[in-house]
Automatic annotation (TrEMBL):
Keywords: Hydrolase, Signal. GO terms for molecular function: hydrolase activity, hydrolyzing O-glycosyl compounds. Residues 64-315 form the GH16 domain. Residues 1-16 form the signal peptide. It holds the Pfam family GH16_XgeA. The keyword Signal applies. CDD domains: GH16_fungal_Lam16A_glucanase. This is Glycoside hydrolase family 16 protein.
Amino acid sequence: MILFFQLLLWIHPVIAFTFPTWDGFRDLLVRKTSELRSIHLQKRAVNKTLWVRAYTYEGSTFFDEWDFFTYSDPTNGLVQYVDRDTAFRDGLTYITEEGRANMHVDSWTNLTLEQVTSRSKLRPSVRIHSKRRYNHGLFLLDVAQAPHGCGSWPAYWSTNENWPVDGEIDIIENVHSNRSNQVAFHTNPGCFLTTPGNFSGIAGSTTCDASINFNTGCGIVDQSIASFGPTFNEKGGGIYAMKWDSDSIDVWFFYRSAIPTDILEGLPNPGSWRLPSASLSSVGCPIDNYFRNQMIIFDTTLCGDWAGTSYSRVGCPGTCEELVTKGANFVNATWSINSLKIYNKTVINTWYLDGGASDIQFPVLTTLFAAICIFLSALL
């Protein structure tokens, strides 16, 4: 009997090759020990994208990291942007009891028509530029109230001094009391909006070149009639999200009652959100060639190149210059900001070990077979 098991131990490879039709039997018996070492658990890599908060503007320190722009309005608006001290002293800028950062157009001073038309005195307003510059990121602006009204032209946007070489992104912008937001991009020649694209809004011009079409740029209008203006404010505002990376620049608007849970929890996941209302794709515009080193800007101008030239067509009273003379016309020209949070994209390379059971059971069983034979021969 001992000889039987010793013989079986040595001849089991022969049996395997003799009966190749036995499914898996050859592999079961003849897989060498060295092969067992080579059949190891395989490393499977998975890239997971996380958005990690990098900076926050909110509460009592909101205005600490901003410069107040005090030059003449580059868009020829009938405003005088004031410095920080004047803005706080005259109540144009302050933090509310709820912790909101408010910025107003002067709505209590009256001017004469001669002052406005001669530009000897214009309506005080606020324009601020972030001290920090950004390249890529996820920007979440929580707005409780945004300016609107005849003659007003508010904007939340980004650019730098090297305009338009380094691009311009208009995230919130429109004029008068329009009810739909317009996202626009202004660049050097060669950047185009691809249509149809990965967005739900209505595309206008597809040429982003700021040197043509009176600097219209390429724009997309949000289909929501509550993404700008009085209805936006009546609904308590909401969140504007702008995601900027090498692939695209995407903009979403979420009503206050429809803000994604991941945003509320501080763990934004744009990949789970619905289609953006606007998107500029690298397919038509290599993003990193046209947008860089952006500072964030809030402003509200009056009349000027857009609100002034469109004034007579929207049913507002008199002329835009006449409107600017009366402060009470601008009681709704107010930004009220809950917060602006900037997140950086972080790609984590996670991995796990994957080894199929079918890959390892044969060598294990081969070793087990041999061990049993040795044990039984010793026992007998």
